[in-house]
Amino acid sequence: MQITQLLEAIMVFSFGLSWPMSIYKSAKSKTTKGKSLFFMAFIWLGYVAGVVWKFIEFSDTGIFKYPSYFYILNLILVSVDICLYFRNLKLDKAKER
Fold this sequence. Notes:
Blueprint: H1 3-16, H2 18-29, H3 37-61, H4 68-96
Helix pairs in contact: 1-4, 2-4, 3-4
């Protein structure tokens, strides 16, 4: 593994550490308070771009580099948190009634 791949993996892994905690908070609190769909959507879009980049890189080189797994994992985690946001939004609206 090249040093650039290692540094990229550390960066994406570090960014991804917060998502399990965010998912836990969303699941436990059952509210959208303190969450921003706009923010999560931009993060999601960034990870989609990272995954597409890695697949383009794979098609050019034939090598699926190690950091690619972290992009995919983080994309899944952000997607779960976004799904919980919509569940919690529904619960918030039910509480208001």
